[in-house]
Amino acid sequence: MKLKNKKINKLNFLYNAFISNRYPISLTHFITERCNARCPHCFVDFKTKKDELILENIEKIASTSGNCLKNVALTGGEPFLRDDIFEIAYIWYKNSTTDSIVIPTNGSMPDKIENFLKSASKYNLPLFFFFSYDFIGEKHSDYRGIKDLHNKVFESYKIVKSYGNKFNATFQITLSPSNYESAFETYEYIRDILQVKNINCPLIRGDNAKFLNENLKNNLIKTYEKIQKQINLDYNKGIFNEYKNNSLTKIALNVKNKILWKYVLETFANNKYISPCKAGSLTGIIYSNGDVFPCELLNQKMGNLSDFDFNFLNLWKSLNALNVKKNISKSKCFCTYECSWFLNIFSYYRYYPEIFYYIMKNIFKK
Ligand code: SF4
Ligand code: SF4
């Protein structure tokens, strides 16, 4: 397999991340907007049928995604509903500079995951799975509307872990008004009974996070704080060992745990802007039909890739895309979307003293 040179020029990368913000570092590709679940908190529009990009065009997009791309998320809908998901992952890995492929999934199709991994392991694809999990046992299946989903998701997790540490897997509880009362118990269940070695708990976002009454909001805040505190404790105790100690990923995760959650919570609690958002600059969304947006929440289209012969950077640098980027900055857009917050924190000088403090603390702790 001839790969695109993965060695990103460090100076170019740093100049882009901290100063020019011209090229994406992280992209989310909705490879399909179909889904076999119907989660009450979902914001995907299932009523409008959308075309899906063909492999030939995905290859053109990946090849023109710039020389700073480090991460691609293949999401949906449910990404395993696409039979060619391996080909898509392989195309991104082969034709772009990315060295991590994230796959958020509801885990309902263990057979497909098994087949996918048979191929992926031959090519050493750097995969990071995120399995959604909202409630304990059958309540989870009922909530998402898929029979026996609770067992299927755990089976899918075990398939990924049957490859040892070759591929990474995280369970993710999205904290929402529906599950906050039992979320801490669900967290303990995943950690102690299912013995999953990495758990994440983002806050619900989008319209579902707006218009909450004060009481509900306060309860969500308390639960979020309680779980994040426990995640930090469990990391420090070494219970979560999905990533090697002192690996860059683990250090980044630890720093993220300490800083990102603090600012996400502050934004949610006070409903106000804290610092610039890098969506549309360092991160963006490609929808299944080739539409490009800065994020999943802001309804400002940057363009459709078919109008640019599937050349990603030509769209990203177009006048319309630059205007969207300017609007985000001018309007001081804010939200609790953790994927954007991750880059916002790592690319903004105001956070460097805090990042430096936590990195040192992490390296020198016993
Ligand atoms: S599994 Fe994901 S895409 Fe499917 S309905 Fe649930 S939240 Fe939406
Ligand atoms: S602040 Fe949130 S809604 Fe606004 S551009 Fe950034 S990610 Fe999108």
- From the alpha carbons, calculate the radius of gyration and give it in angstroms: 20 Å
Mean pLDDT: 91
Helix content: 40-55%
Strand content: 5-15%
CATH fold title: TIM Barrel
Would you state the CATH class?
Alpha Beta
Class by SSE composition: alpha/beta
Measure the end-to-end span: 41 Å
What compounds sit in this structure?
Answer: iron/sulfur cluster
Q: What string, H for helix and E for strand, traces the elements in order?
A: HEHEHEHEHHEHEHHEEEHHHH
Largest sheet: 9 strands, mixed
Please provide the count of β strands: 9
Structural domains: how many: 1
CATH architecture: Alpha-Beta Barrel
Which helices and strands appear, and what pairs or packs with what?
Blueprint: H1 10-20, E1 26-30, H2 55-63, E2 71-75, H3 85-95, E3 101-105, H4 110-122, E4 127-132, H5 138-144, H6 149-161, E5 168-172, H7 180-193, E6 199-200, H8 214-236, H9 248-270, E7 283-286, E8 291-293, E9 303-304, H10 312-316, H11 319-330, H12 338-346, H13 352-364
Parallel strand pairs: 1-2, 1-7, 2-3, 3-4, 4-5, 5-6
Antiparallel strand pairs: 7-8, 8-9
Helix pairs in contact: 2-3, 4-6, 7-8, 8-9, 9-12, 9-13
Bound molecules: iron/sulfur cluster (SF4) (2 copies).
One iron/sulfur cluster (SF4) is lined by residues 277, 279, 294-295, 297-298, 328, 333-335, 337, 340.
Short description:
It contains 13 helices and nine strands.
What does this structure look like?
It is a single chain. Helix 2 links the parallel strand 1 (26-30) and strand 2. The protein has a single domain, classed as TIM Barrel (Alpha-Beta Barrel), CATH 3.20.20. The protein has helices at residues 10-20, 55-63, 85-95, 110-122, 138-144, 149-161, 180-193, 214-236, 248-270, 312-316, 319-330, 338-346, 352-364, and strands spanning 26-30, 71-75, 101-105, 127-132, 168-172, 199-200, 283-286, 291-293, 303-304. The chain is an alpha/beta fold and 366 residues long. The protein binds iron/sulfur cluster (2 copies). One iron/sulfur cluster binds next to loops.
